[in-house]
Design brief:
Layout (H helix, E strand, L loop, with lengths): L55 H10 L6 H4 L13 E5 L7 H11 L2 E5 L6 H4 L1 H15 L2
Parallel strand pairs: 1-2
Length: 146
Amino acid sequence: MRWGTHHEWTDGRRRSRLLPAGPYKRYHDAGGPESRARPHRGRDRRGPERAADVPAEVTKVLAVAQRPLAAGAFTEPAATASWKTKPSWALIATGDQAINPEVQRFGAKRAGATAVEVDGASHAVAVSRPKDVADLIREAVRATSV
């Protein structure tokens, strides 16, 4: 399996430096479906760039606890795009080094999402800034409750 086209903008720029073109080996279920293939950069490649605003002792636990990403996340088509018919919210972590904040803003704008930016927050924003995440969730619940 090779990836590449799933991770490129129409002008050929890479969407993510975290998912270089394959091939990727399967993990845990060698005979399973393609969605079980898991790109894995190795424990040594995970670290501060994903959780720069989280204490080091916490990032060590996160690094060993995180499972590799399922290839199906990029290869399985979605049946529908809910954001086209339902309200959506987005939290932009401006200090995220795993998913560029500009990419986050692009997705939020495309979805017509109510976007909230958390200044300096890393990719691990739910760990480092749980109040900001919870506030956004509460805002979405209030806005959609009958």
